[in-house]
Amino acid sequence: MTEHTVSAYENELRGLAQRVAEMGGLTEKQIVGSIDSLIRSDLDLARQVRAVDPQIDALQREIEEVGILVIAKRQPMAIDLREIVGALRIASDLERIADLAKNIAKRVIAMNGTLPLAKVTGGFDAMARLALERVKRVLDAYAQRDVDAALDVWKADGDIDALYNSLFRELLTYMLEDPRNIGSCTHLLFCAKNLERIGDHATNIAETIHYMVKGVPLADERPKLDTTTMAAVGL
Amino acid sequence: MTEHTVSAYENELRGLAQRVAEMGGLTEKQIVGSIDSLIRSDLDLARQVRAVDPQIDALQREIEEVGILVIAKRQPMAIDLREIVGALRIASDLERIADLAKNIAKRVIAMNGTLPLAKVTGGFDAMARLALERVKRVLDAYAQRDVDAALDVWKADGDIDALYNSLFRELLTYMLEDPRNIGSCTHLLFCAKNLERIGDHATNIAETIHYMVKGVPLADERPKLDTTTMAAVGL
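Above: the input entities. Below: the structure tokens describing the complete assembly.
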């Protein structure tokens, strides 16, 4: 292989990682936008979040296409192959995270300007901040190929589950207290579930980083607050 | 390329498609098991569904691994490349379908033997049958590489959304009628959402089949009963 070819190949790999980072940045913005639109009942912002989503889908398709072509063209060694497969997996998780943010925005639109229960906005804010922080930290770990930082994200999965469970119980209480809350609380419990799932995808990305760097999957069961989780109606 | 090599390559492609079909069969069983466990409040069956899920995850990882290796080793032509990328995408959707079935089973376990509202089991049965039929039909379309059959599945997406919306409204009514129903109805509305999402993944698979055979993505917006969907609290 000539030096020119090697360098073109390295550029391809770097380009792929850059696109994943770009997708990550957009996805973070979508999380922020969706939760701000929820807390402030901001329909315009919610519509904006919904409108941006196709860009993220397109980025994922592009990453998949480029990644597969590089594999077919370069027949990469094991470590580069993991790099590319990792990019494809992370792009897939980011697409799903963005989709969950979009679904929150869609619920804000469906609630049509009804402010969510003021009592629970604090809980949503806390949960969203935790979810966002996990996504940010795992994307930093990806940028640095830092397995330890990825493992930190992976281990902290229980935090967001605990917040979700408590928010969920709270929402149920308000539904029981006053049946007129049932409609909006139903929307809110799906939103809370979406935030919890965003956290799960951050955990998936942490697992992918481990595989990319170490070459073996994280075999252990993911840390879940199982007792709380199974007992709560929210699962 | 010698004849021997071509034949080994063809075997690899065939083996990949067979694994996807196997995964599809297991996934169908998981849908049936999860919904039967829900309707009959059968905790043993629910636990069985939960226990099978890791096998399906392992199959997906295996399909991804084999597919990527074939791409790297064989540098396939465009049509074969689409065949392999299609197998990876379908395996990813099947994994998510199986995950949604597992989540229904986990809710059955969390409900711990409380029979769901008898009034809604019919609705769940109808919705589950529709979801299962869509998965079956799209897997048949994959086996036959039949774009028209895949497009039929793709177009019929609205049916399951309509059933979901009506089941959702019904569940809300029972919550409003008697607050003691709120706990179980909350479980059931997540189960209904999971069945709706199983239908969405069948639609994704139909799109993948179109891409595999035709080489271009289905660009149009997916058919959704948008007016109903946005109006309903269930989204």
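Note for the figure: The radius of gyration of chain A is 20 Å.
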